């Protein structure tokens, strides 16, 4: 009888140990798979031409990381990340382009970019980026988000490092250039840690 009990205990311990290890593995996977968006101005310059509601040309005069030094003093064609403006052959496309022009006329043609560090370029050779204009003395305007929220472009989650819905329209100049609207990373980490702690305590109680 005692032998059967010991076998059951061993099986229970083995099963709990397996669950415990799976929980720890999940925690490690969750933390290591998190990707942080580079949160400083990477490239800045003057907007020279607006092609349409999601594409423009810029002359770069400031580069903050070595990876993009090739952009310095160059004319670069840029594509606003994760949005799709209507074609210029439609009234909606003209309205989208005109609204982008209006923003530039109102807030100035000097802009900063957060470049897609995963791919940098799209299939047409345009630099993929989040575009920021100086909204006022204290805040920057996320142009990508503005165009989507005001109906001038559609949000499409293209393959890149960005998730447009994680950005605020207005970002404080005194904080990070790119500031998530919700601390999703920390929420995920917190939940994973709680799960791991629960599994450890449950293992101790049942053993």
Short description:
Helices cover 38% and strands 24% of the residues.
SSE layout and pairing:
Blueprint: H1 2-33, E1 43-52, E2 55-63, E3 75-80, E4 83-84, H2 91-107, E5 110-115, E6 127-134, E7 139-142, H3 143-149, E8 154-155, E9 170-172, H4 184-206
Parallel strand pairs: 3-6
Antiparallel strand pairs: 1-2, 1-5, 2-3, 4-8, 5-6, 6-7, 7-9
Helix pairs in contact: 1-4
Description:
With 207 residues, the protein is an alpha+beta fold. It has two domains: 8-31 and 183-206; 43-172, OB fold (Dihydrolipoamide Acetyltransferase, E2P). The protein contains four helices and nine strands, in the order αββββαβββαββα. Strand 6 (127-134) and strand 7 (139-142) form a beta hairpin. The chain is elongated. The two termini are 19 Å apart. Mean pLDDT is 80; it is low at 30-39 and 177-184.
Total DSSP E strands: 9
Share of residues in strands: 15-25%
Number of helices: 4
Low-confidence stretches: 30-39, 177-184
Key phrases:
two-stranded antiparallel sheet, 2 domains, 24% strand, single chain, alpha+beta, five-stranded mixed beta barrel, OB fold (Dihydrolipoamide Acetyltransferase, E2P), elongated, 38% helix, 207 residues
